[in-house]
Amino acid sequence: MRLEDFDNDEDKVIQDRLKRKTWNEIRTNDSWAIFKIMAEFVNGYESMGRIGPCVSIFGSARTKPEDPYYLLAEKIAYKISKAGYGVITGGGPGIMEAGNKGAHLGGGTSVGLNIELPFEQHFNPYIDNDKNLNFDYFFVRKVMFVKYSQGFVVMPGGFGTMDELFEAMTLIQTKKIAKFPIILVGTSFWSGLIDWIKTVLVEKEKTVHIEDLELFKIVDTEEEVVEVLNKFYKKYDLSPNF
After folding, report:
1. pLDDT at 118 > cutoff 90
2. What is the three-class DSSP state of 23?
3. What residues contact 84, with CB distance under 8 A and at least 6 apart?
């Protein structure tokens, strides 16, 4: 079918991606993509290399300001900033906004790693003016989170939040990066997933080792978040991961 034969934009995008391209088109497009990817990495490294020790806060972009988890994320970020850490978020609304807001109110470093999306994402007003970065590529943005974070605080969220969580655990599990604190906030939200991991992945299918459950902690308060961070780094000289 021709592109104009499709009624909706999603079908048109799929058809355009699948259409046969000449070798010259493939080579030209891929070459320019490489330069764009390199530019995002260089800009990210140069901008993030000066921020100092930070903790990343993840969670849903759809969480409203009156939601208890939004309010808790704000308190966590405030407490983190007062403990001497900066805060990194995805730069958008919801939990991300709460994280940047808490850091801003606490007088700490407030970083936003924004991503161009067709919905939901727009940068929030609580990011430091010189620390608001924009990305086109998810994988470049994810490298920045892992490379420049001394801990992950994972609030309730959707697919994107789960993606960041499981990638971090995979990198630590496979020893591609050094271990750092991964803190899941909200026992009621996370307990179902953790029970499934224990009963299905660990006990039934044996696709995960029981020791891998030690890669994260589950907490419910801002005090517990800071306690986990401080307990972990009490053994080390805290410095950025580069």
Report:
1. no
2. helix
3. 53
